[in-house]
Fold this sequence. Notes:
Layout: E1 3-7, H1 12-23, E2 27-32, E3 46-50, H2 56-63, E4 68-71, H3 80-98, E5 102-106, E6 113-115, E7 118-119, H4 128-146, E8 152-157, E9 174-175, H5 191-203, E10 211-215
Parallel strand pairs: 1-2, 1-4, 2-3, 4-5, 5-8, 8-10
Antiparallel strand pairs: 6-7, 9-10
Helix pairs in contact: 1-5, 2-3, 3-4
Amino acid sequence: MSEIVIFGAGGRAGRHAVAEAVARGHRVTAVVRDPAAYQDLAGDGVALVGGDATDADSVAAVAAGHDAAISAVARLDMPSEEFFVGTANALLDGLARAGVGRLVLIGIGTTLQVAPGVMLLDTPGFPADARTFSLGHAAALEALRAARTGVDWVVLAPPPTFLDAEAARTGRYRVGGDQVVPAEDDVLFPYADLAAALVDEIEAPKHHRALVAVAR
């Protein structure tokens, strides 16, 4: 059993990560900005706390005593690059101070490559609004790669489509490198299977300091 702190626990990905970790017998600290709005998260095996993933002091405080961290954070009320780069730096700093050695982050499929050196977000005709948001993720990835840190991080990027919030967990998924994994069918990738991949990388880390594609 591990002690896992999950930032952004109130969103779809975060909730599935909490459920997956608890189902496997881990103890979870679910971190949200406003605990009063997410009281349904609290329960057996889950401690609900307030915290700010963009603030290293806050990260260090809520992460103390944990074995690993998951980041499922996202915000649309501030510039994408400012938020995701700030979060990446704050997580690395705060987790290092708290003695947490493993960080698994949820990325975005648009930062995966469709050809050598060409991210999906840089392809002709890619929507401008989506590109702006995706560039924040890309900048955060560069910040992670450039950081001199003892925290062992990995970014898992689901397919560059909507995910299925209702589909049941299968526990099966394919793993690629930093390239888009070709779809085998038209079925959306379940959040529940993304959560399985996140917790797998905590229980048995296979990828280190890398962007890794996950798909059906």
